[in-house]
TrEMBL record:
Pfam families named among the record's database cross-references: MST
Annotated protein name in UniProt: Mini-circle protein
InterPro entries from the UniProt entry: DinB/YfiT-like (IPR034660), MST-like (IPR007061)
Species per Swiss-Prot/TrEMBL record: Streptomyces albospinus
Length: 185
């Protein structure tokens, strides 16, 4: 219990009946279910970041470089890796991190309007590529080569991406609450 008085809790999401994240199918086609759950996780990240600008770069706690902006940059690189590199076989270098600087996605997340705009632009472009790739794929069993795991199917990548977003959205919950007390479904 806080000794500084009651904590302000701003609600990010008020009406669960209109929350599009809850629209993922619960029966039927596997691809529709997986893409619905992934869309819900992506939307959650956007909602956790909504209404913030420079605050997106606020760090969790020292010495961590974890921030909402770092998560956006990280997930742009993750989307790019799995959908462009592994499944589509494209030679697309990481955008925010590298072998030499593996934490560049978080370390470079600074409160600059240009850095913030670039992160969202790149993330949206990678999501659009992934969505188009999944829609055009003949089935969930198509596979690509990953240097770490070997052959991975589109099904596996979709499940992994849902897990990746869900884990990081847990971080986003805590980061957002720390910034302004906002919580949500």
């Amino acid at each position: 219990m806080s000794t500084t008085g009651p904590r302000r809790r701003a609600e990010l999401f008020v009406d669960e009946e209109r929350d599009e994240r809850l629209d993922a199918p619960t029966t039927g086609d596997e691809r529709a279910m997986l893409t619905g759950f992934l869309r819900a996780q992506r939307t959650t990240l956007e909602l956790k970041c909504s209404g913030l600008e420079a605050e997106l770069a606020h760090r969790s706690v020292a010495p961590s470089t974890l921030s909402l902006l770092g998560l956006v940059r990280h997930l742009a690189d993750v989307e790019r890796r799995w959908f462009r590199n592994v499944l589509a076989g494209q030679e697309a270098p990481r955008l925010f991190s590298s072998v030499a600087h593996p934490d560049g996605d978080f370390d470079g997340a600074v409160p600059s309007p240009a850095v913030i705009a670039e992160a969202w632009e790149v993330w949206r472009a990678e999501v659009a590529f992934a969505d188009a790739f999944v829609a055009a794929a003949p089935g969930l069993d198509i596979a690509g080569d990953d240097g770490w795991r070997g052959q991975v199917s589109l099904r596996w990548v979709l499940i992994h991406m849902i897990e990746e977003y869900a884990r990081h959205n847990g971080h986003a919950d805590l980061l957002r609450e720390r910034i302004d007390g906002a919580i949500g479904v």
